[in-house]
């Protein structure tokens, strides 16, 4: 943000309160609620409500449904909440993961994805990730993160400080154009692979797990301490991701 | 609409999504409007019509355009469209009116592209100080058109940046020239005063108003960047509203300066091709008149790229709906621009003026003719879009009293301007241009009538925009019963 900081002045505190109330009312009423219904429920003047709704849609916290009069929460709200609840993995999915671990000599991990948020929910007990929270917080430096960013319209709106990306290793894509190139590759090939971007000498590949409507619901990651992305496991990982899709949707 | 039925892909996928910054979106509107060319060229024309009422007419024209711009923001805040005003009209008045408005817009963008191309060539020739024969001028037009097309295929990002830079330079030159001329002004009065302070007639005021509105044509073209803009529901309405506001201030200020300057000038200067350049020449300003020529040539070039950009996106939108053949909806694999639509539209826009110039028609006549055709197209599109706004808001249950009043007023006043424009063009001997417009615009109504009989399901798709997809919603949220 630029400009002079004048603090929150005048009628702005009330506007902020009203905006949050509108957001909460859409969450409470459910997807498809109309502007008029929101205004009635909150007792706000219609013109004010419409303006606040348009503002929240502009910032992508809310989404206007294709009929143009219904509203729903946007994927960006997951970033507000910071968690994916409930972050439980069905037993059937855990069995599929265990089966895959028995068939390859590499670490197999699962991260659930909602909008711009990834949560590592099942780490390989034998070949664990060094630090799952790094994967979740530095999306530009991990294969799972690349899948999440490639799915977003504008990755710069998703990551924290897009102009000051942390270089965790010498391999980390920390400049904007490096990330652009990396994501273009991911979109073209349909999976992500990286070597040494998160930890020196550790490679990883991630394949998308998609729900029935095609949306990204999770990422299946295969990590290897041999430096390169373990592409020899790509086909097996992809077929497993197809099995996981219906279980996690 | 059930939220689990949302599509995975946007119907307008293929363009480079969410890449353009606020400034680049603004650049599209500014370049299609070509402010420096407009503020220099239009006020003398208005003076010749409106006489002593020139300033109120300039202010009135600006106010009407700002009002139309404000009406368009009601759409721009709610849907990210590629077809711009065409898609907006569809959401309010339905597919029939949308095709009428959409094809009028196509004629508008094409007409302005032709006149800007010719304008660019004319000022370029004036800059070099040569007097080349018709075929040579036509060759220059082809080269300029080719350059503009390549810029637009290469990507809106490059063309928007180039356009904005050119525009800033040329506005700077225009302001500098006007300030220098004002500083040198001795307060005297010349034969121009007879026109500048001339009698006011209702017809003159109305025609002046049409010209003033025509100066702003293209201001709404940022509305075609709904997919390509970052945060489109914020950036596009800002560009569509603030472009006419800021340009309007410049326009009125330049109008005041020119009233003062031309009052003191001989009447031949006022009615000449380029009054301000002639004044600058007469005052012996040395290099400034040449700079002014170069600046306006650049502004016109930016306007060519801006208009072609917008035109191709409207055609792209129509193709994605099935109204036009599917190949027009293909995008360039590397640059993600509507390359096929660009490749089809541009040659036509270059060949028409090139042939006219080669056969010896004066640049000024081509410019005036294409401008008239384009003005009719734009104003018709504005009338329909402004009328569509309150209907649209009523349909989605978000109509308020100010929006109802503004939409009705904007539509009614624009309709008056349209009628006056048609009548004025017929009186002033450019009635042929009205015929050209009607012929160029006929595909719109014809498409509508044909599709209504043959393929109503295609018509139902009219108005595609970058709608919500499965991935844009928070997963697992409750649904309203």
UniProtKB/TrEMBL annotation, chain A:
Domain IclR-ED, first and last residues per copy: 76-249
Gene3D superfamilies the UniProt entry points to? 3.30.450.40, Winged helix-like DNA-binding domain superfamily/Winged helix DNA-binding domain
Q: Which positions fall inside the HTH iclR-type domain? A: 13-75
A biological process (GO) of this protein is: negative regulation of DNA-templated transcription
* One GO MF term attached to the UniProt entry: DNA binding
UniProt entry keywords in alphabetical sequence: DNA-binding, Transcription, Transcription regulation
What protein am I looking at? Answer: Transcriptional regulator, IclR family
Q: Which domain of life is it from?
A: Bacteria
Q: Does the keyword Transcription apply?
A: yes
TrEMBL record, chain B:
Cellular location(s): Cell membrane
The record's section on Pfam families has: AA_permease_2
Q: Which GO terms describe its cellular component?
A: plasma membrane
For this UniProt record, the keywords arranged alphabetically read as follows: Cell membrane, Membrane, Transmembrane, Transmembrane helix
GO molecular function annotation: transmembrane transporter activity
Transmembrane region positions?
A: 25-46, 52-76, 97-124, 136-156, 163-184, 204-227, 239-261, 294-316, 337-361, 367-392, 404-425, 431-451
Q: What is its main location?
A: membrane
User: Membrane topology type, per the record?
Assistant: Multi-pass membrane protein
- PANTHER family in alphabetical order: AMINO ACID TRANSPORTER-RELATED, MEMBRANE PROTEIN
Any idea what this protein is called? Amino acid/polyamine/organocation transporter, APC superfamily (TC 2.A.3)
């Amino acid at each position: 943000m630029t400009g002079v900081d004048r603090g929150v002045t005048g009628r702005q505190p009330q506007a902020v309160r009203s905006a949050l109330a509108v957001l909460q009312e859409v969450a409470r009423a459910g997807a498809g609620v109309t502007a008029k219904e929101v205004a009635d429920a909150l007792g706000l003047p219609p013109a004010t409500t419409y303006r606040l709704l348009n503002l929240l849609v502009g910032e992508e916290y809310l989404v206007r449904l294709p009929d143009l009069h219904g509203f729903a929460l946007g994927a960006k709200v997951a970033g507000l909440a910071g968690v994916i609840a409930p972050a439980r993995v069905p037993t059937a999915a855990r069995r599929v993961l265990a089966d895959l671990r028995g068939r390859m000599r590499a670490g197999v991990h699962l991260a659930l994805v909602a909008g711009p948020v990834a949560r590592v929910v099942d780490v390989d007990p034998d070949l664990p990730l060094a630090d799952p929270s790094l994967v979740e917080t530095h999306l530009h430096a991990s294969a799972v993160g690349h899948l999440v960013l490639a799915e977003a319209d504008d990755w710069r709106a998703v990551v924290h400080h897009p102009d000051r990306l942390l270089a965790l290793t010498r391999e980390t894509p920390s400049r904007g154009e490096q990330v652009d190139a990396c994501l273009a590759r991911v979109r073209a090939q349909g999976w992500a692979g990286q070597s040494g971007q998160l930890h020196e000498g550790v490679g990883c590949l991630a394949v998308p797990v998609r729900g029935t409507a095609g949306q990204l619901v999770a990422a299946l990651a295969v990590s290897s301490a041999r430096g390169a992305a373990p592409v020899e496991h790509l086909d097996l990982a992809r077929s497993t991701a197809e099995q996981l899709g219906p279980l996690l949707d | 609409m059930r939220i689990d039925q949302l599509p995975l892909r946007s119907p307008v996928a293929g363009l480079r999504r969410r890449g353009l910054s606020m400034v680049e979106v603004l650049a599209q509107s500014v370049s299609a409007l070509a402010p420096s060319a407009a503020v220099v060229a239009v006020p003398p024309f208005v003076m010749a019509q409106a006489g002593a009422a020139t300033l109120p007419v300039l202010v009135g024209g600006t106010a009407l355009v700002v009002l139309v711009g404000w009406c368009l923001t009601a759409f721009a805040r709610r849907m990210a469209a590629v077809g711009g005003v065409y898609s907006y009209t569809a959401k309010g008045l339905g597919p029939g009116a949308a095709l009428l408005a959409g094809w009028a817009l196509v004629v508008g963008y094409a007409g302005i592209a032709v006149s800007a191309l010719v304008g660019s060539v004319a000022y370029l020739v004036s800059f070099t100080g040569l007097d080349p024969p018709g075929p040579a001028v036509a060759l220059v037009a082809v080269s300029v058109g080719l350059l503009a097309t390549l810029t637009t295929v290469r990507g809106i990002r490059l063309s928007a940046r180039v356009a904005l830079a050119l525009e800033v330079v040329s506005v700077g030159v225009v302001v500098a020239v006007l300030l220098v001329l004002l500083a040198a002004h001795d307060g005297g009065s010349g034969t121009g005063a007879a026109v500048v302070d001339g009698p006011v007639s209702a017809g003159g005021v109305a025609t002046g108003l049409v010209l003033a509105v025509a100066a702003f044509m293209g201001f709404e073209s940022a509305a075609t960047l709904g997919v390509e803009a970052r945060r489109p529901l914020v950036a596009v309405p800002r560009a569509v509203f603030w472009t006419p506001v800021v340009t309007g201030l410049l326009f009125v200020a330049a109008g005041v300066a020119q009233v003062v300057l031309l009052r003191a000038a001989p009447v031949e200067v006022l009615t000449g091709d380029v009054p301000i350049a002639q004044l600058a020449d007469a005052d012996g300003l040395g290099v400034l008149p040449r700079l002014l020529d170069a600046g306006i040539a650049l502004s016109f070039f930016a306007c060519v790229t801006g208009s072609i950009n917008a035109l191709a996106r409207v055609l792209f939108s129509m193709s994605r709906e099935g109204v036009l053949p599917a190949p027009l909806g293909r995008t360039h694999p590397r640059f993600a621009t509507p390359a096929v639509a660009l490749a089809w539209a541009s040659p036509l826009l270059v060949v028409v003026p090139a042939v006219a110039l080669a056969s010896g028609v004066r640049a000024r006549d081509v410019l005036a003719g294409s401008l008239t055709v384009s003005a009719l197209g734009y104003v018709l599109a504005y009338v329909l879009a402004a009328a569509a706004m309150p209907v649209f808001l009523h349909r989605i249950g978000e109509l308020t009293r100010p929006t109802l009043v503004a939409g009705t007023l904007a539509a009614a006043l624009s309709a008056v301007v349209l009628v006056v424009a048609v009548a004025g063009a017929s009186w002033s001997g450019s009635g042929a241009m009205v015929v050209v417009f009607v012929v160029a615009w006929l595909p719109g109504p014809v498409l509508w009538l044909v599709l209504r009989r043959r393929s109503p399901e295609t018509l139902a798709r009219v108005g595609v925009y970058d709608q919500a997809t499965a991935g844009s919603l928070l997963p697992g949220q409750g649904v309203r019963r």
